[in-house]
Design a protein that fits this description.
The protein has 266 residues and is an alpha/beta fold. Helix content is 35%, strand content 20%. The N and C termini lie far apart (58 Å).
């Protein structure tokens, strides 16, 4: 295990290691790590970004699922700063456990394409302890994250993220920047959780259920998809046409429907 470069990327972990130095520097320039910041890298892999983050911050945490990468990573990063590696699955890891009083996390990562959406939802649940997030993701996912109403890519992910975060796509990354090269273009994106909620959802769980149900069958109207939660007169009373499809509604509209559903169910 001595040389991290001998590690073969594992398909089951969705590993595509970033190797392009210009892209690595571009990422570090966006993040600008500084001493005292609580930086956490998800899936550091071979440490392409880790060394630069450590150099800037002096100390950081990393969450790595592949145990075979941990010792080589520790060795290759020795001398750059204090690296605390947590052998764990990011999908179940309690990120807030890494913060001290008054501290917030800066999350960074090259998220595996096959589990990127579940990780994003897991992190949304912990948004209260997060300052910002910088991720490499499949471009298609980033397009969905930042999409607005009326767009074909606008959906559940768009609404749930935009309700809690400011989403800023930063730049695209060619497949050639990775080994092995993925079959898709990647994008680098910044998410900043809102300090105060953008919308006043009375029940976050109900809000999530309404959004998921509204987009469950995209071609159907709100009237059909939300049957059992709200009725036509109720939606019309809050200024929403039940004959519309979910893709026509803004984030605030879904919050209003969810708040209405709370009253109906109580």
């Amino acid at each position: 295990m001595g040389n991290p470069l001998t590690h073969r990327p594992r398909k089951r972990f969705g590993q595509n290691f970033l190797v392009d130095r210009a892209v690595i520097q571009q990422i570090l320039d966006c993040i600008q790590p500084k001493p005292g910041q609580r930086i956490v890298e998800i899936g550091p892999g071979q440490g392409a970004i880790t060394k630069g983050l450590l150099h800037g911050a002096g100390a950081m945490d990393a969450v790595e699922l592949d145990r075979d990468l941990i010792q080589p990573l520790q060795q290759s990063c020795a001398g750059f700063g204090e690296l605390r590696i947590h052998s764990a699955d990011a999908l179940t890891f309690n990120f807030c456990s890494l913060t001290g009083e008054g501290e917030k996390l800066r999350l960074v990562g090259n998220l595996p394409y096959n589990i990127s959406t579940p990780i994003l939802f897991h992190l949304l649940d912990q948004a209260g302890c997060i300052q910002d997030m910088h991720f490499m993701l499949q471009k298609e996912v980033v397009d969905r994250m930042g999409a607005g109403p009326g767009s074909k890519t606008y959906g559940r992910l768009s609404v749930m993220l935009q309700a809690r975060c400011r989403v800023t796509p930063l730049f695209d990354i060619s497949p050639d920047a990775f080994k092995p090269a993925p079959k898709v273009i990647s994008s680098f994106v910044c998410l900043v959780p809102c300090r105060t909620p953008r919308f006043d959802a009375e029940d976050e769980e109900m809000f999530g259920r309404i959004v998921a149900q509204a987009f469950s069958q995209r071609r159907k109207t709100l009237r059909n998809n939300l049957k059992g939660y709200v009725d036509d007169p109720g939606m019309k009373a809050i200024g929403i046409d039940p004959g519309l499809r979910a893709e026509s509604l803004g984030v605030g509209d879904f919050v209003r429907i969810a708040n209405l559903a709370c009253k109906v169910q109580s």
